[in-house]
Amino acid sequence: HVQLVESGGGSVQAGGFVRLSCQVSGYPNSRNCMGWFRQVSGKERERVAAISPGGSRTYYADSVKDRFTISRDNANNTLYLQMNNLKPEDTATYFCAARVMRLGYCYYTAPEKYDFWGQGTQVTVS
Fold first, then answer.
1. pLDDT tens, residue by residue, 17-27
2. Which of 41, 54, 111, 114 has the fewest C-beta atoms under 10 angstroms from its C-beta?
3. How far apart are CA 58 and CA 43, in angstroms?
4. Pairing of strands 32-39, 58-60
5. 28-32, 51-55, 106-110: the lowest-pLDDT one
6. What is the DSSP letter of 90?
7. What per-residue confidence (pLDDT) applies to 14?
8. Is the pLDDT of residue 102 over 80?
9. Dmax over Cα atoms in the chain, in whole Å?
10. Contact at 8 Å (CB) between 21 and 7?
11. Three-state DSSP class for residue 26
12. How do strand 18-25 and strand 3-7 relate by DSSP bridges?
């Protein structure tokens, strides 16, 4: 099965930056939509960004547009989320997720549309 492992989280001051990484194994990257979600305790999981299997199309939540950038390096089986100009509101546990390609759609925002999940990495913005 697909295995996802996030890394790169930590504490950062407001206005700073962090790059999250997600190592993917167990399934061809070229067949997966990939997404980043975040969750604050007591709230629903939120789709932050998504990227198509080949990396040509990206999708973002309005709250992170122009600040976050999702990218993927399929040759190295890695997904990234570059997070710039961080705000306290960005504090959350961040998860990477994979959606096995079915109909070619990667724009879904619902967590239920994704098939595999990492364990999450904490980002705290002070």
1. 999 999 999 87
2. 41
3. 25
4. unpaired
5. 28-32
6. G
7. 98
8. no
9. 41
10. yes
11. coil
12. antiparallel
